[in-house]
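Lab notebook page, bench 4
Experiment: in silico fold of construct C2
Operator: M.H.
Input chain length: 161 residues
Purpose: comparison with the prior construct
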Amino acid sequence: MKPEQRLYDKLRDQYKLKHPNYPDYLTLPVKSYKLSTANGLTQAVIAWIKAHGYQAERVSNTGRPIDNRKEFVDAVGFRRTIGSIEWVPGTGTTGTADIHASIPLKGSNGFAVSVKIEIKVGKDRLSEAQKKYWEQMELAGGVYLVVKNIEDLFQWWDINV
């Protein structure tokens, strides 16, 4: 079975459980994900984890923009914009993973383990801050996982969950 099909089968089964009276002759409205992009893959990984009843959330540490631009009309009557947009750094931990989840792993006696998942698509690589964060997670007894495609997640899932 193709990995994409495995994802959609699970999401379809989960939808049927939540909506048992939904007619069988209608197509189930299961969201599709563009797994070739970081955003689509991130959403799919979160959906997969939540479909199994576990907790997962997307984490962003990009900060916030401050718009210092000013708009005015010059002497000739043209509208002009001067200034720039600055970014204030986020207050989260540098190098934090894209997804934070709590999943009971094999051998954890049913207790949830902190799992941090970093999404990397294409030529994207881990930064030094992300490598340090990975070390800290493993020293603290958590799990850090780099997912480059949905197959990576399923291979890890089949072994550990």
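Observations: The domain at 3-63+93-160 is CATH 3.40.1350.10 (Trna Endonuclease; Chain: A, domain 1). The mean pLDDT is 95.
Next step: discuss at group meeting.
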